[in-house]
Amino acid sequence: MTIIIFIRHGQSTSNVGKILSHDVNNFPLTDEGREQAKKTAQELKRVRIDAIFTSPILRAYQTASIIGDELGIIPVIDERLRERWLGELNNKRFDPNDHWKLKIIRGQLEVKNLEPWDSLKRRMVEFVTSLKNEEVVVAVSHYDPIRAVIGHILDLDDISAHGISIPNASMTVIEFSSSPKILSIGSPVLSPSLLSKLDRYIIRA
Ligand SMILES: O=C(O)[C@@H](CO)OP(=O)(O)O
């Protein structure tokens, strides 16, 4: 069994500008995003962390570096954690009140080269199943890829998982075994109930 703590990167300039981007070297963390990452790092100090993996994309890598500095762990880049390939939506603004995904499902929008939901699920599950047993791993990724892990476990398609909220720098904790368990979704803190489930990994309650 492996415990994976998926962390969505801290707030970035792309989030503030409501821009979708799979670019690697654009859209850094904002000052708020750096503070969010530091707060999450303080939470993570409460459990034993064996490794940190991160998406190569700047906002995620910066988040992982802030956490790694606090925990004394050097983050390892893993391409499977990268942002969804957005095709012709890349670097485009989106309106959260008239979401592009709803437009697609209603046949009002077609997006060339958008990475399919099944591809997201496949690469995220490949990442999880490549991890060593009995490890506690931090994985810094993005909104859609983390939703895809939840979608895999709950057997939800992209739109059926649309309402899942994964705030910046939040923790989605998965106990991965032959029957995976979701221990938290988009949580800003490790709650006492969650810590009780991680009791053998706790350093400081
Ligand atoms: O832009 C967003 O809302 C999401 C989409 O997956 O990306 P990120 O988590 O990188 O902000």
UniProtKB/TrEMBL annotation:
Signal peptide: none annotated. Keywords: Isomerase. It is an enzyme of class 5 (isomerase). Transmembrane segments: none annotated. The keyword Isomerase applies. Its EC number is 5.4.2.-. This is Phosphoglycerate mutase.
